[in-house]
Amino acid sequence: MTRAETDGTGGTKNWGRLRTAFSLWRRVITDLVVVGLWVVVLTLLFLSTGWPRWLYYTLLLVGVVSYTQFTRK
After folding, report:
1. Cβ count within 10 A of residue 61
2. Could you say which of 12, 28, 60, 63 has the lowest number of CB atoms within 10 Å?
3. Is 0.85 topped by the overall pTM?
4. Transmembrane region positions (predicted)?
């Protein structure tokens, strides 16, 4: 065993926690960017075409639900 694993300070454990926290934040930011881009694309599409609002909300919901189902672990 290395000194970091046995000295009681949790040096190795701290790196694991840091990696876990970074991974979580990277996932959250990625999700925000993807969903944000979906909203922007739909908004611009519907503003330029004048399609019905109910279709906008339906596609918005279907897109977000599909993304969450696709990326679920």
Report:
1. 10
2. 28
3. no
4. 28-48, 54-70
